[in-house]
Amino acid sequence: MKKECLSIVESKCRACRACGLAKTRHNVVFADGNPETAEIVFIGEAPGETEDLEGRPFVGRAGDLLNEFLEQAGISREDDLYIINTVKCRPPENRIPTDEEKTACEKFLNAQIDIMNPKAIVFCGATALKSFWPDPKVQISKIRGNWFDVTINGKEYKAMAIFHPSYLLRNHSMQEGSPRRLMQQDLKEIRNLILTDRVADYAAV
Ligand code: URA
Asked: What is the pTM of this model?
């Protein structure tokens, strides 16, 4: 059922020319993951070059690193996550999407979240977080790793912000308190949420 609803939104999104990014895109990057099994909506910033060419989110260098962290945490990219971005078309030179571009794409993003009705939303990086956080000066390093509630289209969701893997590509340290160590910690927390709910389902049998 979710698949059918999402495919209606996807076909509208593929035809969208509401902002200037439509002129330079090779592909609309709509989503990745299995909407019928995913309990977490994972929101990144915008497609990069590889994503634009392949039409899937997080398949370039940042995506490869994300995959490593997910695997290590025991999170299945294919089954546990529905991965999307704040904007569906690549901003030239990988610049941060403008407010106009984000606004033009908002209806698709909100529809994806609404249809998915996830147990939790993960904001990956500052751009995704700032699309929903009231204070534009929010610092991801202060917020990350903590669950909070976010209201989208009148519905409340549990949410967490985590570092963007591009940031981790520039920060290699694995020392206690380093961004990579914090990423491991945050993904474990997310994995625990997925597992806790599953265990609770079986405990109720
Ligand atoms: N960075 C993002 O935020 N999203 C992608 O899809 C790829 C890189």
From this structure: 0.96
